[in-house]
Amino acid sequence: MRLFLDTGVLLAACGSAKGASREVFRLAPGQNWTLVTIPYVLDEVGRNLATLPYRASADWVRLRMNLLIEDNILSLDRPAIFTAGKDRPILFSALAWADVLLTLDSRHFGDLLGGSFYGLPVLRLALFSSASAR
Questions:
Q1: Is beta strand 2-5 parallel, antiparallel or unpaired with respect to 120-123?
Q2: What is the pTM of this model?
Q3: Residue 85: pLDDT over 60
């Protein structure tokens, strides 16, 4: 299963060794999960790492090696009504490259959380964790 990790998930994984975001990295090999993101997200992570504790930068170097980096997808060949323009590349790229979009961004993805976008589940980590435990 290909899991698309957005900026919030990656920053949370860098910021805490004990949170659900870091757990996705720990569990991925045993669950046959491929962790996917795009250069757009990598740029956002890079800009925001300085807001986290010092150790987060070192953790990011290690965690980044576990990611499959796909191309940014900036447009779709189908209608899309999605108000958060800055997060379109995340949603569109996840649709192109992954089976699930994992996000912590309820502000921009709130209407989609727990639902789907053209069949792509858009989930908070807690929803994904409970669904994958079944």
A1: unpaired
A2: 0.89
A3: no
